[in-house]
């Protein structure tokens, strides 16, 4: 069992989200940084969609009530296990009674604690993710509180287990240099042409600040007001929206829809963050700037191919590391037998 000692600003059980229910008004939910979750599960040999605990901004702590194999991914936070530093983007063993502490995050927003077999909660609509706005899924349909206890699906330790680590995506998947601003690649949205030329230019040329009013539903951006053309300023019928869509309300300040976003909306969509950069946007700290980089559909496809290639490289590296640990364990066994 895993006991929540402190959940920090927000902690919840998330997997890769529930799909196939948007036509019924049920959003995806799931990890804000799906790449971090995917890598954590790979480090542990879990099924790709296994559930983990998503911590926002760190300042959290959990206690382990059984031996367990875990992995820590996402934002760096100088985590420690009973005072001993542990590394992000690594899998490692924890022992019964030990406490993992997550200090405030640095250069990111969300930390993922993945466990062997995944967090064992009851699936709802095919997913263990918590839909916080609707109040179902995950652990009792809510954010985690002090004293909550969650089970791991595969407790215990393997005899040959050791530290396993990979290169963080921030290093492996570098993007265009935008100075201090985080570059986020963007496709023009369906209503892009409804905006004034000055607004279109501002979208690409300005730095946009992630405001404190942001949450898992959407990131509110602060920058120049984006005005629509007078001849295209009529109200729109509600239409389907997905995570990554950037809507512009009447005040002109954009909102980037994220994992818990609604399924329909009536604001014009000026752009869509490419799928390969959703993890990057999810990790931008509050108050930090982003700059949108215009790309073509072909460039967006190539970016996703780079992510897929990175994951294949991780699989190969983990196989090599695993083979090395198996050989080392056999040698140790042979040496003891000879003695």
TrEMBL record:
Keywords: ATP-binding, Hydrolase, Nucleotide-binding. The keyword Zinc-finger does not apply. The keyword Plastid does not apply. Its EC number is 3.5.1.54. It holds the Pfam family CT_A_B. Residues 23-310 form the Carboxyltransferase domain. One of its GO terms (molecular function) is allophanate hydrolase activity. Coiled coil: none annotated. SMART domains: AHS2 (SM00797). NCBIfam families: urea_amlyse_rel. This is Allophanate hydrolase subunit 2.
